[in-house]
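Hypothesis: this fold can be encoded by more than one sequence.
Test: take the structure tokens below, design a sequence, compare later.
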């Protein structure tokens, strides 16, 4: 997952009543509130979602512990993100779900796991003279972006590259692992998921994201169909399959709602932004509109959850300190949606101002205090770069 800002137009495939043609099938999908693995907060909205979607939650994502700990791009606080080293460590640290991965396509149509299609900052591609002429400038969701792009490489070419730390200034210790791991394909992730499930005797869950789907569809590299095909091939396209799918573009989730039965989540950036698909199709709504009851009801017609930025749950003041929680958690639950906000990180620079400690922006602050404050809002889970911290914080919260 990443912070995708901005913008998408009139939602596709909607009937006049605001429901798409998959409504009848979605009645079989099941509700979307995490439940019974740990101490569970009773939510009336969740019960209504159960009734609407016809799910008892057995074996599905409702069986995950709550608040659910989601390893953000693996254990990216400790290893270069979207590598098997990062994914593996997230499991070892106790993540309930691993965000594996942010999906972008290769030139020959394979899905690989990278935070963005531009890979200059997450691989050693700049050190490969044979690819020097691939460096270019493209417009990515309205923003001129210079670098190397996955869609200009075949899978075989990408496999010659190695991952590096994306934010070395903040996490110099992670650079120790630069060059150790290659770029994983999504098929490799699915096989890894099965292997880890067998080894651990416990179902491993993953949480892939379609990245910049409008951009790639314009290039003839539609993500949703490719993702659905791979999931079907591996038998993981069912309502209880251990794969939750997310996207910042609502129309991508609407497409997936027609292709697979997996639980689906709409990611929400800052309140004043628009999903990029809204920008391209002229839909005037902003994220602020989508988090209103009417917008949440619309999302609930085709998805089971939202992934809001933490600021939509508890805004910050001008100094970066937390203020009063919004009504988003209650409103989303009333609509039958789960909430998995993003992203908790241990370093001061990423924490609310009132939880920072000392003057070093890259030193750890009071992450436990921040976790406690966010958990108290009733969120169903959280993305974190530090799954071990998140697990301890959940134990404190549940047992406290």
């Amino acid at each position: 997952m990443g912070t995708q800002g901005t913008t998408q137009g009139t939602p596709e495939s909607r009937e006049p009543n605001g429901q798409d043609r998959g409504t009848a099938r979605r009645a079989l999908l099941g509700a979307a509130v995490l439940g019974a693995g740990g101490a569970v907060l009773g939510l009336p909205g969740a019960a209504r979602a159960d009734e609407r979607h016809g799910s008892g939650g057995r074996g599905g994502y409702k069986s995950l512990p709550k608040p659910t700990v989601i390893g953000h791009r693996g254990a990216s606080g400790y290893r270069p993100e979207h590598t098997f080293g990062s994914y593996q460590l997230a499991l070892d640290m106790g993540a309930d779900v691993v965000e594996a991965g942010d999906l972008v396509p290769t030139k020959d149509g394979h899905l690989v796991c990278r935070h963005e299609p531009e890979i200059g900052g997450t691989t050693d591609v700049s050190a490969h003279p044979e690819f020097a002429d691939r460096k270019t400038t493209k417009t990515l969701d309205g923003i001129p972006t210079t670098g190397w792009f996955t869609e200009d490489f075949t899978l075989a070419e990408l496999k010659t590259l190695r991952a590096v730390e994306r934010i070395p200034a903040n996490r110099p210790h992670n650079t120790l692992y630069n060059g150790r791991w290659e770029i994983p394909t999504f098929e490799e992730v699915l096989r890894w998921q099965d292997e880890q499930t067998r080894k651990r005797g416990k179902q491993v869950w993953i949480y892939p994201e379609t990245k910049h789907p409008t951009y790639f569809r314009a290039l003839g590299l539609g993500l949703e169909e490719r993702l659905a095909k791979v999931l079907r091939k591996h038998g993981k396209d069912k309502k209880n399959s251990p794969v939750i799918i997310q996207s910042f573009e609502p129309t991508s989730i609407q497409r997936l709602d027609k292709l697979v039965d997996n639980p689906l989540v709409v990611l929400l950036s800052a309140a004043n932004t628009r999903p990029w698909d809204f920008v391209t199709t002229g839909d005037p709504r902003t994220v602020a509109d989508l988090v209103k009851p009417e917008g949440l009801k619309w999302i609930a017609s085709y998805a089971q959850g939202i992934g809001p930025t933490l600021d939509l749950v508890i805004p910050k003041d001008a100094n970066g300190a937390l203020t009063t929680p919004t009504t988003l958690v209650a409103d989303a639950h009333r609509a039958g949606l789960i909430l998995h906000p993003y992203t908790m990180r241990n370093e001061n620079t990423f924490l609310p101002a009132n939880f920072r400690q000392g003057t070093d922006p890259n030193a750890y602050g009071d992450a436990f205090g921040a976790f406690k404050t966010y958990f108290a809002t009733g969120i169903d889970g959280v993305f974190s770069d530090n799954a071990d911290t998140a697990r301890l914080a959940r134990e404190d919260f549940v047992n406290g």
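The longest helix spans residues 186-200. The longest strand covers residues 136-140.
Hypothesis status: open.
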